[in-house]
Amino acid sequence: MLHSFDSGRWPFCHQPLILITLVNFFKIVQVSVYHTPELAPNDNLPDCAIAIDVLRATTTMVAALAAGAEGIQAFIDMPTLMANSESWPADKRLRAGERGGSKVAGCDLGNSPLDCTPEMMGGKRLFMSTTNGTRTLEKIAGAKTVLAAALTNRSSVVDYLLELNPKTVWIVGSGWEGTYALEDTVCAGAIIHSLSKQLGQVYGNDEAVAAESLYEQWQSKMVGLMHVASHGQRLLRLNCHTDIEYCATLDSVPVVPIRTEGGVFRKL
Prior knowledge:
alpha/beta, 10 helices, globular
């Protein structure tokens, strides 16, 4: 169960954020959720930071690594991606670029997790730049541990957090061009809900209660939530119906992308 507290009593609070306290065998973990990367602080980085872009960057990262990609490098702009990928053998690289929901010209892929087949991904390095998700990964790059989460790998992320037992955790949603995204918040709520069940008690402010409540309200109808979310509607106009159904599936992929040396994401 999630219990609210007065965040004004916590001197280390940043606003706006969700701050929750997880108590497990007397060990306290501080978890802060930010709706967009712009809202995350520039200092006091956490022990573990988690990027969420349900539609679709982090969902695609999970799918790519599950399909056998050697690694993933994320870039906030296309020129940097193109320059860095040139040093990689052409038959061992894939360039994935997306802007506004559509594939960038000159790239092998856009941002669809359904393109991540073993035949396409096996043994290759994925160089990736998207409208929202890669900005979030850049924002949290300085944290000690950086993960990518989606609805599809929620349970695996929670299991890893319980094993890692970090003192501080950020969950940062990607939003849409600096604005709030419903699907990223429901994913954060799904993580909070699962942690709460595992740990017994979770203490949080009103936003934390709202995030978990959003998940509890929609957990059996995630596709419906995607259809009312503004970015979901944007993808529907691009005929990405199957993508939305895939991204709305809970706990379907047992892979956690983790940032390793050189900023390369690999699977745990």
